[in-house]
């Protein structure tokens, strides 16, 4: 692992993912989680303060970057619910089938290389009554913005840990075996190429 990936990238991602419009999105979706929660792509733990402690029994945070989990463990200190950290990719979920009440993914599907394997794993571990809660940036609905997303995407991904600007989040979730309970979308404040968001809840179809 190079110096940039180990020392610069975690700080850059923590900064970008903690900007006010993004935190406001986290505040909308994270409190919906309940029971035993699997957070895929926990990163530096930015969601942890937004969980409703009265509804959550345990959070299992999955992330492949140990240097990100160092920060997540600090943010988990003192929380009134248990937090477990697993340094694994989203494609490798080492949990029993039907063992999770809520899967939470925020600003994560953009970076997982094999997103359908990851979604299959999420469906596998969810209980029949469980649900997926998501908030992701992705493909913009405006042709001009989308053209710029596609032009910039190769460089963007190299600088930001494999992040893709133009993933079609609703299509990925449907193809990955989920049916929406709710889904909303809008541009957040910020550069249009990176600010179109999708959020909502879904269940295995």
Written overview of the protein:
With 205 residues, this protein is α/β, with parallel strands linked by helices. The protein has a single domain, classed as Rossmann fold (3-Layer(aba) Sandwich), CATH 3.40.50.150. Helices cover 36% and strands 27% of the residues. It has 7 helices and 7 strands. The chain has helices at residues 3-16, 20-29, 66-76, 115-125, 143-159, 169-175, 192-195, and strands at residues 35-40, 56-62, 82-86, 100-106, 126-137, 178-187, 196-204. Strands 3-2-1-4-5-7-6 form a 7-stranded mixed beta sheet. Helix 4 links the parallel strand 4 (100-106) and strand 5. The protein starts with a helix and ends with a strand.
What fraction of the residues are assigned to beta strands by DSSP?
Answer: 25-35%
- Largest β sheet strand count, sense and barrel closure: 7 strands, mixed
Order of strands, widest sheet: 3-2-1-4-5-7-6
Q: Tell me, what is the CATH class? A: Alpha Beta
Write a compact overview of the structure shown.
With about 200 residues, this protein is an alpha/beta fold. The protein has helices at about 5-15, 20-30, 65-75, 115-125, 145-160, 170-175, 190-195, and strands at about 35-40, 55-60, 80-85, 100-105, 125-135, 180-185, 195-205. It has one domain (about 5-205): 3-Layer(aba) Sandwich (Rossmann fold), CATH 3.40.50.
């Amino acid at each position: 692992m190079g110096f940039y990936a180990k020392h610069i990238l975690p700080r850059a991602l923590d900064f970008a993912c903690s900007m006010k419009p993004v935190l406001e999105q986290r505040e909308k979706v994270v409190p919906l989680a309940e029971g035993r929660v699997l957070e895929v792509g926990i990163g530096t733990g930015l969601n942890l303060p937004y969980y409703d402690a009265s509804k959550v029994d345990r959070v299992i945070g999955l992330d492949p970057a140990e240097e990100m989990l160092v920060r997540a463990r600090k943010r988990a200190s003192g929380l009134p619910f248990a937090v477990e950290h697993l340094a694994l990719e989203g494609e490798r979920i080492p949990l029993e089938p039907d063992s999770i009440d809520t899967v939470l993914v925020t600003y994560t599907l953009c970076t997982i290389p094999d997103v359908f394997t990851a979604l299959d794993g999420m469906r596998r571990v969810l209980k029949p009554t469980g649900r997926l809660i998501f908030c992701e940036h992705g493909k913009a609905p405006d042709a001009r913005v989308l053209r710029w997303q596609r032009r910039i995407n190769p460089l963007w991904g190299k600088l930001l840990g494999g992040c893709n600007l133009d993933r079609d989040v609703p299509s990925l979730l449907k193809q990955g075996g989920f049916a929406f309970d709710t889904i909303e979308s809008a541009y957040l404040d910020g550069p249009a190429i990176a600010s179109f968001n999708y959020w909502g809840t879904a269940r295995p179809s």
